[in-house]
Design goal:
The protein is mainly alpha-helical and about 80 residues long. The protein has three helices and no strands.
Length: about 80
């Protein structure tokens, strides 16, 4: 992966690199590889991710079609 530095602007190039790495899922994969994940835990995690992904797509589709956003969940203070 390459990022070009223009006009010696390293900060901007670093931000762009971080965005690229985020999009590729490098940070997420590194976090997952920090410790061993049992196959049963992996299946459960992937299943939950799939469910979240499907629900998010359905919510976005509903918002687009009806023009109404879904009601926000009330958060408890957790203190």
């Amino acid at each position: 992966m390459q990022v070009l530095v223009r006009d010696n602007n390293v900060e901007q190039a670093l931000r762009f690199l971080k965005k690229k790495l985020q999009r590729e899922g490098v940070f997420r994969e590194a976090r997952l590889r920090e410790r061993f994940e049992k196959p049963s835990e992996k299946r459960a995690r992937e299943k939950a991710e799939g469910i979240r992904r499907v629900r998010k797509l359905a919510r976005k589709k509903l918002e687009r079609e009806s023009g109404i956003s879904a009601p926000k969940k009330a958060r408890s203070s957790g203190r």
